[in-house]
Amino acid sequence: MDMWKKISLLCLILFEICLVSGICLQNAECEMQNAEFSNETVLSFADYLFGQEDYYRAASEYQRFIFIAASPRETLPPREGATLNQDEETIQRAMFKIGLCYQKSRQWNTALTYFEELKQKLHGRTDAIVFEIGRTNYLKGDYPQAIKIFQRLTVSRKLGDESQYMLGWCYLKQMDWGKAEIAFDQIKPETSVYTFSQELAEFAKNGAKLPHKSPLTAGIMSLLFPGAGQAYLHRFGDGTFSMLLTLGTTWLGYHYYHEGYKNTGSILTGLGITFYGGNIYGAAASAKLINASSRANYLEQIDRLDKERGVTIEYWK
User: Fold this and answer.
1) Going along the chain, which residue ranges are E strands?
2) pLDDT(30) > 80
3) Are 165 and 193 in contact, with CB atoms under 8 Å apart?
């Protein structure tokens, strides 16, 4: 009888152990499924914030996704239906998007530092990261550095034409019209940016024909005859005023000096010489201002085109 009690007690203990083990295993599986769901939800939310241009919060969510996704990788198998490489690809995409968040929120130096560090980690996406380093320098206004980067990338099999396109934009911003036109003309017809590149090549060609007035010519003309430099700049009112003021004060100074009013004559003659010098300087300075104004108006058109014709590339689909 005692033996049967012992056997019954042992069976009961074994049953309870199996029951508890089953419950624990089920809870562990649920936790893994919840973790997976939470991970994918975080990534979707980060993409949503990025699409809404809320880059600060998007960067935080991408970082949270990377932490969640990378932490269990040494102990847990890949998600069901996904390989380890696919999981790694998703993490790399999130890391890349963090760099874009810094870039689009105009944190140029932070973005450059992040992309440089990322380039050392993601060997399979080097061209894509270098392209964004070049684009960040372009957006920052460091066109010489951006040109160096895009020139190296023009031989890239995947990003050659896009790099050529951005190279043309760098030259446009520097108002190097000839090089900009050549860069845009070299883009292949089958690329997505070809139509835009042809428009921009024409834009660069017209930029080379912008009205230009020579400050040297304007200054020399005003030196030879007061007001002539202003007339060369088509500022006839200013030219007439300079001529009358300079010649009038000089003649009055000469007249009063010979009439015996030497002090008055000397003062008026000095004023005439001063106005004469100002007339020369004013003509040269006005020529520079006209050229600067013409370039500024054209640059405003370039800036508007930049927003409409900027190249958008998605490396991770």
Assistant:
1) none
2) no
3) yes
